[in-house]
Amino acid sequence: MLLTTNDVKKIAYLARLGIEDHDLEAFTHDLTNMLTLMTQMNSINTDAVEPMAHPQPQNQRLRADNVTETNQREHFQHLAPHVEDGVYLVPKVIE
Amino acid sequence: MHTKTIKQLAEGLRAGTFSSVELTQHFLSRIEKFHALNAFITVTQEHALTAAQHADTRLAKGQADLLTGIPFAHKDIFCTTGIKTSCGSKMLDNFIAPYNATVVDKLHQAGAVLLGKLNMDEFAMGSSNENSFYGAVHNPWHDNVVPGGSSGGSAAAVAAGLAVCATGTDTGGSIRQPAAFCGITGLKPSYGRVSRYGMIAYASSLDQGGPMAKSAEDAAILLQAMAGFDEKDSTSINEPVPDYSSQLNQPLHGLKIGLPKEFFQHGLNQQIALDIDAALNEYRKLGAHIIELSMPTLTLAIPAYYVLASAECSSNLSRYDGVRFGHRCAHPVDLTDLYLRSRAEGFGTEVKRRILMGTYALSAGYYDAYYLKAQKIRRLISDEFQHALTQVDVLMSPVTPTHAFTLGEKAADPIQMYLEDLYTIAINLAGLPALSMPIGLSASAAGSPKLPVGLQLIGPYFSEAKLLNIAHAYQQITDWHQHIPTGFE
Asked: In a designed cystine with B149, which of A11, B81, B96, B126 is the match (CB 3.0 to 4.6 A)?
């Protein structure tokens, strides 16, 4: 096995993704299969190859430094699960 | 009315044979009649009838576009104000976007009538539409068969005559594969051709929106309305949009078609290979030459794609945290619990797999072995395409290794599902345009039902007009694109 259930637990925590204990085995199995598939990439040498991040080789476009957006605080906060007095509410972080 | 082309419908609207309201009512009643296909997540009946009335006014004033009054639908990945945009996920089941996607605005301005939002694999991750929170879509050609994915609702709706045409998005084949499985024409444009603004992100360096329609002629009209530079999308390319319809009838005499032999090797269903041979013969009749090529790195496209797409997905989907929008778990005890449970409850299994895979590939100690390696293979694949396309005008290949498969057949094994994308994903890595069109109706084996077969056309950057021309020429001498599934006539 390329991965253990403990590894998957760690990865899931890094991704802030809750995984039920009874699902850990299945995810470990699937991720191991995915990693096995990915090891096919090692069949060729790529030492001299420049990595490609993006299909179009062009510079990031710049725009004039003008204000284009208006304040839409209420409109956006309308979507939130829990808002009070214009702020997003989450459980208490600092005692 | 549901079997007519956009041009025929536009003529009917102008001649007064029917109004846009009548046309829209016709499609709305078909959507209701065939709701068991599960092609739609949201039907916008009132909105559609109002839009149709506006379209009729525009038509009466002579201010209409070709798409004015034409009923169509959006994949539920395009943000729409006032209408739910779920992206096929429980996470966004309550999400009403605060702004329209550029594509949505453009089609609205053209006067097209939005019938609703189409079903899809959750966050566009899947090749069967079985990963939707709203349930699987059925293929109109056979009830027990998948329509493909992730734009499965779009393909099924167009094939069944529930919409004249539809939008789709394609990250690894999500327009082309369902188009092939449902017997319609779909085009993934060059990366940067269609704005991604307001199109919910899965893998940003691969995602691209495009048209899904009954023919190349209709796809050209829809692409015309979708394409173009957009200030709001930093990856949009400022390149003029040609008149796609005017180039459909260019002669193909002397056209050089390349066949990458790696696309025709083990795993390809024999009947599909025969159907492709027959299509190539039609192209020979049109004066094209067929040249065999080799692109050896293509075989590594699947592992490279699933590293890169998962990595980008894990980053893009970190925004769903249960704080500002989307699903939030009940009674979180602390902030970490809020994140963990909101995401656990909001995402489906395939999305979780890819988030985990991407997080792993980007984590310290593994970045070089997976992410960087995959980016290097991406370069090699892109270079191979560039080189091949200096030798020929267009590449042709199957779209899928098999016919549409049975519902549930591959759902338990993600790797089997990933291998479905064998012929489509390399094109996204290179950012090239590619079109899928129906070229046959055949059984995968004796006793199996007859299902559509697709052919893929791949061209250089910004060759959409040429691809549509090549597909249109074929559709002028064959009628595969006019076949209608039994029961949907």
From this structure: B126
